[in-house]
Amino acid sequence: MPNKPSAKKDLRKSLVRAKANTRIKTNVKSLYKKGLELAKESKKVEAEGTVQSFQQAVDKASKRRVISTNKARRMKSTLTKRVNAIA
User: How distant, in Å, are the alpha carbons of 14, 22, 35, 45, 74 from that of 78?
Assistant: First the structure.
């Protein structure tokens, strides 16, 4: 447990930020899984809508440095390839 007031404040800030980052990561992961599932089921129209929402969420998470830029690019590329492969 921190003793100094500034250390206590830093602890509070880090807990709040961790909570926000977890929420953002969970949203990104759920959209990614939903997109992959729709691609697997060959539902192209729904998958394209999910991909668009996913790309917005990933770009925002990357901009806020919740996830790395390369991971965001890798996930977007993978999901887009899977959706585009649907006949």
Answer: 32, 22, 10, 17, 6
- C-alpha angle 58/60/66, rounded to 5°? 80
- Tokens representing 86 are 């649907």
What residue segments make up the domains of the chain, in order of their start? Answer: 5-84
Q: If residue 36 lies in a helix (H) or strand (E), which one and from where to where?
A: helix 5-40
- Percentage of the chain beyond pLDDT 70 is 100
Name the CATH architecture for the domain at 5-84. Up-down Bundle (1.20)
pTM assigned to the model:
0.87
Within a 10 A sphere around the Cβ of 47, how many other Cβ atoms?
25
